[in-house]
Amino acid sequence: MKNLIFRLTHITGTILAFFLIGTVTTVQGQDSETNEKAIVRSADNDKLEWGPCPAFMGDGCNITVLHGNPEEPNADILFRMKGNTSVPRHWHNSPERMVLISGKMRVNYDGQEAEVLQAGDYAYGPTERPHTATCLSDDPCVLFIAFEDPIDAMPGAKTED
């Protein structure tokens, strides 16, 4: 009987310890989440720091990071193209979730019909799917892009290993 009581006490103590660890972890996670500040960014804000696109894309485009670290998962950027310009065929290791903020843009993913995006349209680009983009408007095209994985852009078609 003493052995049974000892086992039950030990099992109850172990369950209680896991419960407390889980509660402390949850509370700590909530504290760190509540300390993160909400942000708002506007595509036409003068304080955005626009940098060049990868060299193979030419001088007609720029990017700025809105949130996150481009070298880590889950970064959000704005991609801006001059009016009436194109970026050559390229692909990304990450899927892209996009919303066109301004302009009119044609995107053409390999193996699919070209699509024309109007301001406010959502688009999804699959992982490693080569594509091109053309800003069809005279004014710049600005595209919000959310990447799941670190941001990259590879020229041409994906080569198989």
UniProtKB/TrEMBL annotation:
Q: Which organism is the protein's source?
A: Pricia mediterranea
Give the domain of life.
Bacteria
One Pfam family for this entry, by name? Cupin_7
The ChrR-like cupin domain sits at: 44-146
> Which residues are the signal sequence here?
none
Question: Which residue spans traverse the membrane?
Answer: none
* Record-given protein name: Cupin domain-containing protein
Gene3D superfamilies in the cross-refs: Jelly Rolls
